[in-house]
Amino acid sequence: MKTESANKAESFYIAIILYKSSSDKPDYQPLYQESFVLIKAASLEEAKAKALNYGKDESVSYTNENGETITWSLKQVVDVNSVLYDDFNSSEDIVDLYARHFRNYEAYQSFEPLLSQEQFGE
Known about the structure:
- Helix content is 24%, strand content 34%.
- By secondary structure, it is of the alpha+beta class.
- The protein has one domain.
- The protein has a four-stranded antiparallel sheet, with helices on one face.
- A hairpin with a 5-residue loop joins strand 3 and strand 4 (69-82).
- The longest helix is centred in the middle third of the chain and has 14 residues, at 44-57.
């Protein structure tokens, strides 16, 4: 018996997944990671489920060089949407996958470390 997803053509989706770090160190400041994940699925609903499962599965704890336990856990699946273009076999060297729009550049700049020149580490 074939499943419904086996009957449908699969498409590519992009998921934006947000993770948060925590630690047993009392004055630890959390670090956040925004990951863009390419997902193959038969529907948007299936892609959302896969993104959520993937985010949960990526949770991890480890001891850093200072003996502190660092834990990365899923904070939120921010967005899941179909890729803009999924012709990966084209002769083009570059393919647009995802775009989002915003109005407040200052707010974007304040949280984007590559724009604000913020130095971060654990």
